Amino acid sequence: MRDYLLYCTYCSAYTLLHSYDKESGTFLGEYSLLHNEYTRNSVILHKFLLAHLGHTLRTIPSKTDEYMNIICTATHFLENDIDKYVEESLEQVRFHEMDRRSEREIGRVQLHIVEHLLQRELESLTNTKAATPAEGQVLLGKELGIKRAIEVLKEVRSDRQFA
Ligand SMILES: [Zn+2]
Asked: pTM above 0.70?
């Protein structure tokens, strides 16, 4: 896969975009050897764009003499901060993951509470004595409805998406 860099001809400075990820629609961004990971965001790219307002920028593909030449001779933009930016990006990913997990956890607790309430409702219905046959039919209908609701809840809870 092709890598790219963005080069400012005026300052002779560059930032590595690396390869383009079609799925996320972004470049992998700068790479940190320390973390063995890319920024996977546009933070450094955007800083580069702002730092070189009005300058002539060129996007250069890898496997070209120009690409090699720029890497060997030009200034690598924010080179000393790349580890820090990658670390921040990894931190954000971890935070989102935790957030997602706790939201899923809350959802599961809520389902559990609803199921518990339905069970209690069912118990009280079962213990209610009907005064007339018509009332008995109504109670039976309610009971079947609640039983079905509990079944549906159990299906949702056992669904792997929610596990
Ligand atoms: Zn510039």
From this structure: no
How far apart are the CA of 3 and the centre of ligand 1, in A?
21
Distance 40 CA to ligand 1 centre (A): 23
What spacing in Å lies between the alpha carbon of 53 and ligand 1's midpoint? 7
pLDDT tens digit string along 38-62?
A: 999 999 999 999 999 999 999 999 9
Closest CA to 70 of 29, 14, 17: 14
Domain ranges of the chain: 4-77, 92-158
Cα 44 to ligand 1 centroid, rounded to whole Å:
14
Angle among Cα 108, 110, 111 to the nearest 5 degrees reads 65
* Main-chain phi, psi angles of 15, to 5 degrees: -130, 140
